[in-house]
Amino acid sequence: MKPVSGGAAMMSTRSVEPSRTHAVSERGFLGVSALLFVASTAATVAWCTSMSGMGEMPMPGGWTLAMAWMPMCGQTWLGTAASFLGMWIVMMVAMMLPSLVPMLWGYRHSVRTAGGTHLEALTALVALSYFAVWAVFGLLAFALGTVLVTLQMRWPMLARAVPVAAGIAVLGAGVLQFSVWKAHLLARCREAGASCVLPANARTAWRQGMRLGLHCCGSCAGLTTILFVVGVMDLCAMVVIAAAITLERLAPMGEHAARVVGALAAVAGLLLIACATVPG
């Protein structure tokens, strides 16, 4: 056997060091992601449990209004909006992180391949930008929800139409799953982590997260509508919707999974309409 020269040994050591650093970085990324998921899930469960203990307000038409849309005793509408936004962000982290982590993983690989640095900071910026888009979406949903709640409380006739309107909304969300618009946005979401915008810096990372967030909000519009209709505090609904979103994002045949989910939602919508319109 020929002895290994000092230069060869040094080159071997240098080649091993980046691979070790890469492995440590990826383990850290997965560890932080897991901790965020566990913490956000625990906070969501605690919030839903506390809100369900407050009960719901009976409304004309035989349905009940979740207290998440109403100010608590002594609370202003601004305080209610802030409380809802905090809950919404935590809930979105719990629901969207399973499908977001693989996309962030792909982004990290693309940045590393392109020779980018500050990988952890860039990954965090993409995630922050992504959830910032969801925060804006939540504020818009809260504003629309409070307007509808106010109208329903003023006009009982409008409140009585809510069960039928809910069924129509779920049916429409199911039909939306079959649309070209949904397929286009879903494809953009599935491809989002495959590359990074060069140069890989803070500005492009923030833009990449916003672009992914916009595509994601659009792609999830129908499923998010179902969540609001069924009940934003309903843990079972959250789990089902989160599973559907993750499946259509990560499954090899995600577009077919989206159609299956759409068919199930359409059937559920028709059943809700039937239950609301058939007497007795």
Automatic annotation (TrEMBL):
UniProt keyword annotations, A-Z: Membrane, Transmembrane, Transmembrane helix
Keyword Disulfide bond (UniProt): no
Transmembrane segments: 28-48, 84-107, 119-149, 161-181, 212-245, 257-278
UniProt superkingdom: Bacteria
InterPro entries registered for this protein in UniProt: PpoB2-like (IPR018688)
Listed name of the protein: DUF2182 domain-containing protein
Organism whose genome encodes this protein: Ralstonia flaminis
